[in-house]
Amino acid sequence: MTTVRRSVIAITAAAALAVAGISGLAACSSGNSGKSQDQGRPAIATDWEAGWKDSDPQHLATLFTQDGARYTDHAFGRTATGRDAIAKWAGTTKQFIQNASLKVDDAFGGDRVAINWTFSGQLAGAPKPFSVPAVAVLQLRGKEILSDDDYYNLADVLRQSGLPADTNFG
């Protein structure tokens, strides 16, 4: 079963990276515009990582467009629409996951950016911490995020945390 789960997440991640790469490859090969100095990754990936690491959830929210911004965490099946809701989601995440941390491992793209990252922390009440691979696909409008779709395997989070697979977070 674990092999099947890992295969599904690998296929999902590959598909997400492929979708992001369709419009991003041309932008990546045409110079360093919009790139950070951190391994040549798009600047928004570095900003996104800093937004999640900041103790103020508004920092992350300010990276999104003023109108129509959407953040979807597909593992938890939750979508936040608008900057206020995105800030609330970031704050709730940091309260619910002790020592919540993410590390951007790689990123590429242009107006669609794919971010390969590691998500770790300890769910409130769980006996053990977790660390799982994740992918975020960002749709940009100019230099702001219009949408963010995060993909990671919730079953792996629960298993590593020592929680039953049918744990419901309401």
User: How many β-strands, per DSSP?
Assistant: 6
Silhouette:
globular
Note the run of SSEs as H and E: HHHEEHEEEEH
Largest sheet, if any? 6 strands, mixed
Class by SSE composition: alpha+beta
The helix content, as a percent range, equals 25-40%
Strand order of the largest sheet: 2-1-6-5-4-3
Low-pLDDT ranges: 1-33
Mean pLDDT: 83
Share in β-strands: 25-35%
For this entry, what is the oligomeric state of its chains? single chain
State the separation between the terminal residues, measured CA to CA.
25 Å
Please tell me how large the radius of gyration is: 16 Å
Our count of helices gives: 5
Question: What's the structural blueprint in terms of helices and strands?
Answer:
Elements: H1 2-29, H2 43-53, H3 57-61, E1 70-73, E2 78-81, H4 83-96, E3 97-109, E4 112-123, E5 130-141, E6 144-152, H5 154-161
Parallel strand pairs: 1-6
Antiparallel strand pairs: 1-2, 3-4, 4-5, 5-6
